[in-house]
Amino acid sequence: MTTTQLRKAARIILVGAPGVGKGTQAERLMNRFPQVSAVSSGDLLRASVRNKSPLGLEAENAMKSGNLVPDDMILKLILNELKTKQWVSSETSVGDTLPAEPSDDPSASFILDGFPRTATQASRLDALIPINLVVSLITPVNIILSRIASRWVHPASGRVYNTDFNAPKVPGKDDLTGEPLTKRADDDEGTWKQRLKKFDETSQPLLDHYEKKGVLWTVTGNSSDQISPQLFGEFEKRFA
User: Fold this and answer.
1) Pairing of the two strands 159-162 and 151-154
2) Helix, strand, coil percentages, rounded to 5, for the chain
3) Of 93, 150, 138, 130, residue with least CA distance to 213
4) Are 222 and 139 in contact (CB under 8 A)?
5) Axis crossing angle, helix 189-213 with helix 119-126, rounded to the nearest 10
6) pLDDT single digits (tens) 182-214
7) Is 40 helix (H, G, I), strand (E, B) or coil?
8) Per-residue CA distances from 143 to 28, 147, 195, 235 (Å)
9) pTM
10) Cα–Cα distance between 238 and 203 in angstroms, integer?
11) How confident is the model at residue 1 (pLDDT cuts 50, 70, 90)?
């Protein structure tokens, strides 16, 4: 694949319904633009719990009590990561009156994954670091549902197949082990319709927030292959 160098830092969030292919687009962006890396709030949280850092212990206590990890804690984890990479000043802290002045070096480009999910969280993030592109990925619901209906998994390895565009060599069998493929327990239409409805309800205020900020861009396609070229084009126009 062709790679492209950036001329300034991109700080991106991808927003899209479950099944729309956010992970695929993030991976393709990072392959096409090697200066972009992923900052995943979920990965940072798991690593901090595993390493038993002070924040990790705090987060673990919250989760053990059945509570959600507070936004403040997630913001601290994200900020910690950005400081470690020297993408923001080491003096920056959550609760500063002004947002950090992030590095504009192209190698300080990142896709933030897993946070924010609500407009309130987005406002908190704005106060910490300015995001300069939010991409709303849209695929029609009927396409997502048909994609899920065609999805089969190999439970032991986590390998995923799709009978429409990534079919196993032998129907119903894993390519490497020959073991039977199964459906995920939650891959039924009713569950997915609920998930998609919930996503619509929670994501609209988040998208409205970023539209007011002037950083929202929307792309529509029936497949990842339709979306990627449009996304690359917009990305190059803004940052390359």
Assistant:
1) antiparallel
2) 45, 15, 40
3) 130
4) yes
5) 40
6) 998 888 888 899 999 999 998 999 999 999 999
7) strand
8) 21, 6, 15, 25
9) 0.85
10) 24
11) low
